[in-house]
Specification:
Helices cover about 20% and strands about 25% of the residues. By secondary structure, it is an alpha+beta fold. Helix 1 crosses helix 5. The chain is globular, with a radius of gyration of 20 Å.
Length: about 375
């Protein structure tokens, strides 16, 4: 799996220089909605859980920098959000405030954060730990009492002293399928590069922070982020080869438990006695149930069901191929789940493209702290 985390001393002196809101290029009409069905009062940690992707880029041409990249990203992400408007939406309660939860594409926007760090990219990669990487991917927990005010998706571009930079993306767990199976990343980078191909004569974007930011010596922006490292997990991804599988019947649940067992054996850590299972159902609904380890231990492992489960790689997301400036591909990519706590199992099906008629992906993340 790409981007395994080690241990070390956290990065210090990261400076956040800018926090911007990016909304879809045009109004979303009609609005998309995703119902969230939960069986426990706290929603299985959905206000804290997140999925993270972190990409590192070396400087390969003279005019390249994270500041330029972030400036162009503000416009290209706005255009990409037209195709995935839920990423700029909000989680909200029902009309009476208690009638369940739903995600709605109300165009409130994601957050684009620009930051700097006083070290080179090679120095960072030589010493990076789990705590270090969490500094490069911003996340703030959703307000449980007033979730409608909290962003669900963050992008952080961090500039290193050498001219290299990183791009960290985090989204609420309820929207992870848009990055994992519906491939928002691929759609965005295609739009980004097509846009840049038409503006080659323009050296810097409109939203170029060095020409807009405050005077030198001013303090960086104080902003509170979540501490993802306290409940970080190690994660594996699987593909169910049977496209007609029903994950809510006995055979489907058995296949999910096979994935759990394989992950626990590989990682050497176990899920808690009770852990949440996220099922993306038809008609754009997320159902969250609770599973117990007792069910796991009672699975008849002698059944020949492993031939219906195929191990996948995070690299299949295509993040290693994301070019956002003049042919420059990431030098390294990391993926992880934040705020895993008791562990988590996700069953995600794609509704778009070639993957729409294939079997679901099963994501298993086990506690590691």
């Amino acid at each position: 799996m790409a981007g395994q985390h080690g241990e070390g001393t956290p990065v210090s002196n990261l400076q956040i220089e800018s926090v911007q809101t990016v909304t879809p290029f045009k109004e979303t009409d009609p609005r998309q909605r995703r119902q969230v069905l939960v069986t426990d009062p706290v929603g299985s940690g959905i206000f804290r859980r997140c999925f993270n992707i972190l990409l590192y880029y070396k400087k390969v041409v003279e005019d390249e920098s994270g500041w330029i990249v972030a400036g162009w990203m503000k416009e290209s992400i706005a255009r990409a959000l037209v195709h995935q408007p839920l990423l700029s939406g909000r989680l909200r309660r029902g009309e009476d405030g208690h009638a369940g939860l739903e995600l709605v594409s109300n165009d409130s926007g994601l957050r684009l954060i620009e930051a700097g760090i006083p070290m080179t990219l090679s120095e960072f990669l030589d010493k990076k730990s789990r705590d270090d990487e969490a500094e490069l991917v911003f996340w703030k927990d959703i307000d449980e009492q007033n979730p409608q005010f909290s962003p669900l998706f963050y992008v952080q571009v961090t500039n290193f002293e050498c001219g290299g930079y990183s791009v960290g993306m985090s989204c609420n767990i309820l929207l992870a399928d848009l990055l994992i199976t519906d491939n928002f990343l691929k759609k965005w980078v295609n739009i980004h590069n097509e846009m840049l191909s038409k503006v080659d004569a323009i050296e810097t974007p409109i939203f170029y922070l060095p020409t807009l930011k405050k005077t030198s010596g001013s303090p960086s922006i104080p902003i509170i982020r979540s501490d993802q490292t306290k409940n970080c997990g190690k994660t594996m991804i699987f593909k169910i080869t049977d496209e007609n599988i029903n994950l809510e019947n006995e055979s489907g649940k058995t296949l999910m438990l096979v994935c759990v067992k394989e992950t626990e054996n590989e990682v050497g850590s176990k899920l808690a006695s009770k852990y949440p299972v996220f099922l993306k159902e038809p008609f754009n609904t997320i159902k969250i149930e609770t599973c117990s380890r007792l069910e796991n231990e009672m699975v008849p492992w002698e059944l020949d069901v492993r031939n219906q489960v195929r191990g996948e790689s995070w690299d299949d997301l295509g993040a290693n191929e994301i070019v956002i400036h003049k042919g420059n591909k990431p030098t390294r990519v990391s993926y992880w789940m934040g705020s895993v706590m008791d562990g988590i199992v996700m069953a995600l099906t794609s509704t778009e493209g070639e993957e729409a008629n294939s079997g679901p992906n099963i994501i298993v993340s086990v506690p590691w702290n």
